[in-house]
Write a structure and sequence with these properties.
There is one protein chain. By secondary structure, the chain is of the alpha/beta class. The protein has a single domain, classed as NAD(P)-binding Rossmann-like Domain (Rossmann fold, 3-Layer(aba) Sandwich). About 35% of the residues lie in helices and about 15% in strands. The chain contains twelve helices and eleven strands. Strands 3-2-1-4-5-6-10 form a seven-stranded parallel sheet, with helices on both faces. The radius of gyration is 21 Å and the shape is globular. The termini are far apart.
Length: about 350
């Protein structure tokens, strides 16, 4: 009898990468989401709002071998999953690397200056690194609260996946920062700290690989999710330019700051240790950033022909509303030239 996977909120970029992996291995896949979505053949869709616990209970049916939760955002969601535990064999829940804090208690969410940014070991290991205090203060503390609930119980095996900067076709992705510049035919790209910033990305292909392996090998644990050989900011910009066949002049400034802040810019490296994933579930990456980002870039180019990017990626629009003020960049470059710098 085929095993059954229920993907709650599984219509997004990672869910779409996960579905074929499960199907190839004989799983029956059911996707639960609020809206109507076009899904691959052989996938059952249940229209359900997770806020309606009774409806979600009915959607789960009598036998769900694994529930993969892409839309758990607060403590109550974790408590809801435990209340519905009867038909569920195990859980895989997407968390975030932003739950990490450094030894001095510095966190991503609270860092307003470079000095306040966490100083993490390279790489960050799941077992030894502190996390933020669980609570309702922000996205990270809410994710930490979910982890606290699920790791503090024994009723259900639960894998919490602390993902890095997720990218892939079909979602709000940081890569738009460079893709839009390429589409706008920018001849220069300005990077602070000589492009050495490193914030660990993870392809939906690699993340989906880790999810299905966690479903195959249930357990109570936390696993990091990041691509192999995490690229620097400079390497990210070059990979995206290469994917779209674009040439530009790199202006590598010695210090961080405006006008060269990007979605990956951080004063200190954020690199995730993937040893635990390999040990616990036999994870091996299936792609690299350089290979995987091409599909993301191509999707962005095509998708933004049909819809304004702000409508397509509203979450990114909030963060990037000031990212494409080219007049300020051009003025800055002119100042460098007048000062005698080569660009």
């Amino acid at each position: 009898m085929a095993r059954r996977a229920f993907l709650l909120g599984g219509t997004g970029q990672t869910g779409r990468a996960l579905i074929p992996r499960l199907q190839r291995r004989g799983w029956d896949v059911v996707v639960g989401s609020r809206g109507e979505h076009e899904l691959p053949p052989g996938v059952d869709h249940v229209q359900v709002d997770r806020a309606d616990t009774a409806a979600l209970d009915q959607a789960l049916g009598k036998d769900t071998d694994v529930l993969v939760d892409f839309v758990a955002f607060e403590r109550e969601h974790a408590e809801q999953l435990l209340a519905l535990k009867e038909p569920i064999g195990s859980l895989v829940v997407i968390s975030t690397a932003s739950v990490y804090a450094d030894r001095d208690g510095r966190t991503f969410e609270e860092a307003k200056t470079p000095e306040q940014f966490p100083r993490f070991p390279v790489p960050i290991n799941e077992r030894g690194q502190p996390t933020v205090e669980p609570g309702d203060a922000n996205y990270s503390t809410k994710k930490a609260a979910i982890e606290q609930v699920l790791l503090g119980q024994d009723a259900l095996p639960a894998t919490l996946i602390r993902a890095g900067a997720i990218y892939g076709p079909g979602g709000s992705v940081r890569e738009w920062y460079f893709v839009k510049r390429i589409l706008d035919e920018r001849r220069y790209v300005i990077l602070g700290d000589r492009g050495r910033s490193r914030f660990h990305p993870v392809s939906t292909e690699n993340l989906a690989e880790l999810i299905w392996l966690s479903a195959e090998h249930p357990g109570k644990r936390v696993l990091n999710a990041g691509d192999p050989g995490p690229p620097t900011l400079l390497e990210i910009s070059r990979a995206i330019a290469a994917a779209l066949g674009h040439d530009w002049t790199e202006v590598l400034l010695p210090t961080p700051g405006e006008p060269c802040e990007t979605p990956w810019s951080c004063p200190r490296p954020v690199v995730l240790d993937m040893t635990e994933a390999a040990f616990e579930v036999g994870y091996r990456p299936v792609t690299t950033y350089e290979r995987a980002v091409r599909a993301t870039c191509e999707w962005l180019v095509e998708a933004t022909k049909e819809r304004p990017w702000e409508e397509l990626m509203p979450r990114m629009a909030e963060y990037m509303q000031d990212s494409f003020k080219y007049d300020a960049e051009d003025e800055f470059l002119s100042g460098l030239i007048k000062a005698g710098s080569s660009v």
